[in-house]
Amino acid sequence: xxxxALLAVRNEIRFIESCLRHLVDAGIxxxxxxxxxxxxxVELVESWLGHGVVQLDHQPWVGRFELREQxxxxxxxxxxxxxxxxxHLDADERREPPLPYPTLxxxxxxxxxRGYNAIDFDEFVFVPTAEDPDFDGPDFEQHMRWxxxxxxxxxxxxxxxxxxxxxxxxxxxxxxHHVQFPGIxxxxxxxxxxxxxxxxLEHAKRKYGTRVFSDAxxxxxxxxxxx
Length: 227
What we know:
Blueprint (H helix, E strand, L loop, with lengths): L2 E7 L6 H10 L3 E6 L6 H7 L5 E6 L8 H14 L4 E5 L3 E4 L7 H10 L4 E2 L1 E6 L13 H4 L3 E3 L12 E3 L26 E5 L5 H8 L6 H5 L8
Parallel strand pairs: 1-2, 1-4, 2-3, 7-10
Antiparallel strand pairs: 4-9, 5-10, 6-9, 7-8
């Protein structure tokens, strides 16, 4: 079974190598879309071509972050790819199977055998704290221990963004949080998503301090907290 991660990046040099290594170890291939990176992300991704990264595409930078366009590109990639399953994710996320599955690929294969065609993820957000304010080093995944479970009782908590190949799909309609397609059957047990949005104050400033968001997406109530 071939499982393809759809990963869009812009200036993700801080996360990209550990993300790609994590996916390779999990048995997942990756199709990367770069959105005009200027920090060495492209060169690093190119070094992974043929070693887990199957393709690198380029989305021109237009001076603002346009998530809907990225998600549309992912929809088109999924429609044209021969992979069996797809997973939408960001470079600062780490996806894991629930116990007792040894790898993500084996877990997804079992979900497929059981007749389900989509997977939800419980999101655990890892954060710096006043006691431990800065994790902007190479081993943040080993050292960050403070986290919260993202809105476990909210109707917006779902992260249904792994799915079996089918057409058509709608990934953009729910901002990438909940893929939609006819006949969707979500596996009843959520998988795990560890999310590392910022590693410290200076990293937060670099990542979000100058980011410009699409006016149309802000008008649709996307990116509210980050903007």
